[in-house]
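Bit of a strange request maybe. I'm writing a small parser for structure token strings and I need a real example to test against, not something I typed by hand. Could someone generate the tokens for this chain?
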Amino acid sequence: MKDASAQSNGDTTIRVAAVAPSEHGKILLVDDDPDFLSSLSDLLQPEGYEVAVATGAKSASSATAEFEPDVALLDIKLGTDNGIELISTLKQQRPGLACLIMTGYADMESAVRALREGADDFLTKPIDPINLIRALRRCRQQQELERRNREIVTALKSSEERMRAITTNVADALVTIDSRGLIESVNPAAVKMFGYESSELIGENVARLVDEEIRAEHVGKGPREVNGTRKDGEVLELECTVGEAWIGSERVFIGVMRDISERKRLEAQLRQTQKMEAMGQLTGGVAHDFNNLLGVILGNAELLEDQVGAEDPYVQAVIRAAGRGSELTQRLLAFSRLKPLQPRVLKPAQLLGGMSDLLTRTLGETINIQFLTGDDTWRIEADPAQLESALLNLAINSDQAMPEGGKLTIEVGNETIDRRRAAGIADAVPGRYVTITVTDTGAGMEPKVLARAFDPFFTTKSVGVGSGLGLSMVYGFARQSGGFAVIESELGQGTTVRLYLPQVEAESTAPEIGSRTDAPRAKGETVLVVEDNLEVLDLSVTLLESLGYKVLSASEGVRALEILEDAPKIDLILSDVMLPGGLLGPEVVQRAKRSRPDLRVLFMSGYADATARSSGLLAEGATVLNKPFRRYDLACQLRVAMAGIPGPGQKA
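Reply from user aminoacidic:
Good idea to test on real output. This should exercise your parser:
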């Protein structure tokens, strides 16, 4: 044994061979015969092994701690020590250590005892070098195999832990099903989604959870929509993806289910909102054009009335028909949220109190009306006439839904909508609202009817009984007032419509219009009329002249500016909001006021154009005369504008 160092350790000696570290492994030789140890060292070192030697149990334990051998070769007899008993000590000290017993007694009893105590193999003396090398290689191969097995087991445990963490924390429900359709396992998300304990589902058919079988043909086909059923009976809309795996010879299916009920509800809300917006744009455009036609009819009928007399039945029939047409277009504009409102700050409970007699007379004795109002309800800013009209419409609808009588409850209250709740209601935004709830005990609506209740022109009434615009007007009024409307109904259980109107703090200071008297006349003023519809333009000129005004006219903005430059005196410009030729009515006014800052202005429109207002062209406080208008309304608004007084609902 070359280049050996020695260290005293009690009555034994540890000798460590000074050789370079070896990939073949470290061998600890334990024998009480130094010459035998030297010969074994000389045998193993050339084979590439790193060797340490010990002559007794105590030195062997110390060498194991310092040298950290891979294999220990122990003589069965170590003086007063026993090599077989030393095996368990060394293996406890260094787990994974391979121990080979060397004995000069080739008896089976010693070999069996050594193997029972943990020996990996045994060799008989004299040691055959070939058998020794083979035994060491077997030990090293066995150690490598065990090392790999440990790595595999560790990796499997880690993989299982990761998979368990994933399945435990994933938001989607994971359900494992065997080839017969029976549930083998569920994750916590599935337990939460369906409301069952896992023990209630294991072994049950998957049909308990979903309305369709999970079959082989569904594997790899991407997500599909199915209906699921909770333990409490609630139906869920689910998105289901199916995968498969083989566990041994058994084929299993994995169903990944995601609750899309909320997403489907939001998609339906979005479709409804888009539909209502599209219908609003359509009805608003139709109403605008129709208002121009009605204006011509109504205005000319009034002029004709001056010639033939106010008692002429034919003229009065035309005026009444035009008035009904005007009411129809006002409902269309209310739905499309383009109807100009004249809002005031008010308390709905007080307004409702003033309507009680009207509702009682309108609905009759078979309807029991109950008003639930409180003194602490908040204020809102709304057009009182339109609010009254909306409530009257709802009350009449309820009356028609209760032909044999029933109960109508109108309740006013306060409610705060938070962000979470607002997300679940179409058109809602978080805030503080005054709620006006109208509930009847009538026939109720089927789901398909309820889904279209706010659509304009949709009605279940007989032909000629209703226009289908009542509820759509209510919806449009609520939206234009900054709020929203919700309808709930169930067949045979009645209907509830709830208006949410935002709370305001301010008090109203808007002036009221005086009572209708003779139309006020001109005081020598000159008016420039700007209107692209020639029939409406001609009518406006005629009406103004009949009121004593001097009138100039233009059919587009550019021409109006030319007249303003040339005419020596113009007191007021009466302009449509929307004009062709690249200049809107408000733009014409803005340019005109640069040279005529004292010029009075009155706009007229089939609707208060949202584009002009949002762009800032229609200034805050601008007075708008709604088409179609009576001569009296035109005369009053002209005098208000001439005096520089804001019109009803306008700001100074």
